[in-house]
Amino acid sequence: MPKAMARHILVNTEAEAAQLKNRIANGEAFDVLARKFSTCPSGKKGGDLGEVRPGQMVRSIDQVIFKKPLREVHGPIKSQFGYHLVQVFYRD
Question: Which residues form the PpiC domain (predicted)?
Answer without folding.
Answer: 1-90
